[in-house]
Hints:
The protein has 308 residues and is α/β, with parallel strands linked by helices. It is built from eleven helices and eight strands. The longest helix is centred in the middle third of the chain and has 21 residues, at 164-184. It is globular and about 50 Å long.
Amino acid sequence: xxxxxxxxxxxxxxxxxxxxxxxxxxxxxxxxxxxxxxxxxxxxxxxxxxxxxxxxxxxxxxxxxxxxxxxxxxxxxxxxxxxxxxxxxxxxxxxxxxxxxxxxxxxxxxxxxxxxxxxxxxxxxxxxxxxxxxxxxxxxxxxxxxxxxxxxxxxxxxxxxxxxxxxxxxxxxxxxxxxxxxxxxxxxxxxxxxxxxxxxxxxxxxxxxxxxxxxxxxxxxxxxxxxxxxxxxxxxxxxxxxxxxxxxxxxxxxxxxxxxxxxxxxxxxxxxxxxxxxxxxxxxxxxxxxxxxxxxxxxxxxxxxxxx
Length: 308
């Protein structure tokens, strides 16, 4: 758990996030803060909001959200090393759990330990799972949580009744294919729309959205993508849901061409059974990147969540 830090832990934290000493009392200052697993862009003023992107996605996924919020909120935009930054130590070994712990420690050091209330946390996809892990394992560090198009255990989306052990060989096979992509390299030059039938077709229902997500994927480090993908596929947080003290809002996508509304509801909402304070909202006409496909609905949902 990540409660108040010992003197030794505080010294380690000071090394983990480079910052001027005078800024510590102000919550670690502003601008880009460099961590081992993540970098965090701090901007704006007001109540704290932590924004965590998904797999292969840089903090730029939150650009439009940040423009709307930064005059009223103090934003902490996380970026996982390898997804917009050099991979660093994320290039080898586990990533998801140590990255989650670093974000939790950052919240402790730079927000709650300075006397500020626990922040609102908004996470998309893998970022939503990360927020859920923090809320379950360090409940004092999350004031409220919005999870965008993610579930506590993605295995059941692929196979009803799946277990972690069942998912491991499938996850490793898919991760190996991603690692191989780094050896082959991505085609150079402008990216064109990969089309509805491509894997990117499940990411966005617009050509512009598919191109944008393809660009983010191309610039991500395939080693980090593969490792985090494997870890997401083999992480089951359903047993930890009763420990989540913060209110949880799930925002999930539904597109009639991919999944009827009743099927989407059945795929997402029952996974959160046992969460003490939970509400869900379906966003129709959208695929995985709701902020791209339905920006107005997404903005309204975020505003309502933060106002609660």
